[in-house]
Amino acid sequence: MTNIKVRFAPSPTGHMHIGNTRTALFNWLWAKKMGGEFMLRVDDTDFARSKKEYEDSMRESLKWLGLVWSSEARQSARFERYKEVTSRLIKDGRIYPCYETPEELEFKRKRALSKGVPPIYDRQALNYTKEDIANFEKEGRKPHYRFKLNAGEIKWNDAVRGEVKYEASNLSDPIIIREDGSYLYHLPSVIDDSDFGITHILRGEDHVTNTASQIQMFEAIGGFVPTFAHLPLLTGKEGKLSKRLGSLGVRELKAEGVENMAICSYLAKLGTSEDIRSFYSLEELAQTLDFSKIGRAQPKFDVEELKHFNVKHIHTMPFDAVKDRVKVNEEFWNDVKANLEKVEDVDIWNNICNGEVSPQLENKALTDMAADLLPKEPWTDETFNAWLGEVKAKSGLKGKDLFHPIRLALTGEASGPELKTLLPMIGYKKAYERLKGNKA
Structure pTM? Predict the structure, then answer.
C-alpha cells in the first residue's frame, strides 16, 4: 500500500481564516487516520503580498490547534526546479507563449459571451508566425505562457463528489506564467505535489476546474496523479461568505476563549450527516473521518453557534484536557466546570474559594444571622440544606431574597456555581468572616 501523504499549502498573504483552517484540519485528520504524513508547504510566490508576520501567525495557529507537520517546503526556494520543468514542457509543445494584451483578452471574452458561447481561449497564439512574434517583440510586448490541454475527457473519482468529468475542449488552456515571469498557482503546485510524493489532495470545491487542468499537468511531467477530495465551501448563516466570516480566524477565536478542540470538533462535523459533538483529542476525532458522510451542500458556519458549542464543550471537558493549564485539582475542576464560559474563568472560582474576597452586603441582618447559624465543621452533604433551611425559617425569607444576599456575601458575585458546591470549598472560617462582612 502506498504511504499516504497530504499537504496543507497556504499562501502567507493574510492570517489563517476559518475556511483554510478547515482545509488544514481535514488534511491532518486524514493523514492521522491513515497513518500517513502531513506536510506544510508555504506557497509564497506572491512577493508583493506575502509577509513573514502572516506566515508566523499561520504557524502559531496550526500548532495551537495541534495540527503539527512532519516536513515542510516553500515555493520561493524552488524556482529553478519550476524553470527546469517548464523548459521541458515548452520543448514538448505543452507550454506555449501568448502575446495578447489583457485588453485584447477581455475583448475576446466579451465577444464570446455576446454570442452565447463559453469564453474559452481560442489558441490564436499557436498560429503566430515568426514575423508576428518579431513584431510583438518590437512593440515591447512580453509573452505570458499557457499550458496546452490535450483533447478528450478528463475524469477522476473524487472522494467527496464521486465521479467528475470534464471535456478538455470546454476548458481554456490555463495561464501558468504571467508577463512579468511570475508563476501562477497551477504548475508549481503540481510539480511540488509530484516531487514530494503527495498521494491525496484535500481542498475546497472552488478548485474542481483547476483539478481537471492539473491532472493533465501531472501526466505531462510524468508524475503520479493523486486522489482528490473537494470539500464544499463554508458559507455564512445567511447563505453567502460574509466579509466577517472570510476574515475570521483562529487568532480571534482563541482570544475570545474558544478552545482548540471545540474549533476542530465543530469544523470536522459541520456539513456532515453526523451530529456535532465534543472530541478532546485529535487522534480520536481522526478515526471518525468518513468522506462518504460529507454532504454536497455548502455548510453554514455560524460563529455564535460555535461559541455556544464551545461553552458546552468546556462543561464536559475532562480534567486531563486542562490539567496543564489550571491551578486547581480534579475535584475542584469537576465541581465548577459546568458554570464556566472560558477555561480561564476557573481562576475566578479558585480565588473565591481559596483567595480573599470582599463581600457585598445586600442584607446585613440576614447574613449576620446566617453566620451565627453556620454549623462548625466537619460538614456532610446535608449540611448546606440543613443550614439554609434554618436560616429560611428564622428570617422568613425565601427565593431570591434569601439566596442572593448570601451568595453576594460568600462570593462577591451575583451568579456562579451552586452554593452547595462552593461552601465546603470555602470552608467555615472564610464563610463566617464573609457573612459578617469581613474580607476573607
Answer: 0.91
CA 15, chain centre distance (Å): 11
Q: Select from 124, 151, 159, 120 the least CA-distant residue to 216.
A: 151
Euclidean distance between CA atoms 24 and 16, whole angstroms: 10
For the stretch 335-365, pLDDT in tens is 999 989 999 999 989 999 999 999 999 999 9
How does strand 144-147 pair with strand 95-98? Answer: antiparallel
Q: How many CB atoms lie within 10 A of CB 46?
A: 16
Contacts 24+ apart (CB under 8 A), 368-374: 368/435, 368/436, 369/394, 369/395, 370/406, 370/409, 370/435, 371/431, 371/432, 371/435, 371/436, 374/428, 374/431, 374/432, 374/435
Count of residues in the chain: 440
Unique residue bearing C-alpha cell 488552456: 173
213 alpha carbon, distance to own chain's centre: 28
CA angle 425, 431, 433 (to 5 degrees): 145
Give the cell for residue 301.
458556519
Strand partners, 17: 249
In this predicted model, what pLDDT tens digit does every residue of 114-145 receive, in sequence order?
Answer: 988 889 999 999 999 999 999 999 999 999 99
At residue 381 the predicted structure's pLDDT band, cuts being 50, 70 and 90, is confident
d(CA 421, CA 363): 22
* Largest separation between any pair of C-alpha atoms in the chain: 108
Q: Among residues 56, 34, 30, which one has the least CA distance to residue 44?
A: 56
**Per-residue H/E/C for 148-209:** CCCCCEEEEEECCCEEEEEEHHHCCCCEEECCCCCECCHHHHHHHHHHCCCCEEEEEHHHHH
**Are 273 and 265 within 8 A, CB to CB?**
no
φ/ψ (deg, to 5) at 359: -70, 150
Angstrom distance (rounded) from CA 228 to CA 215: 10
Q: Are 391 and 366 in contact (CB under 8 A)?
A: yes
Rounded Cα distance between 64 and 55, Å, is: 14
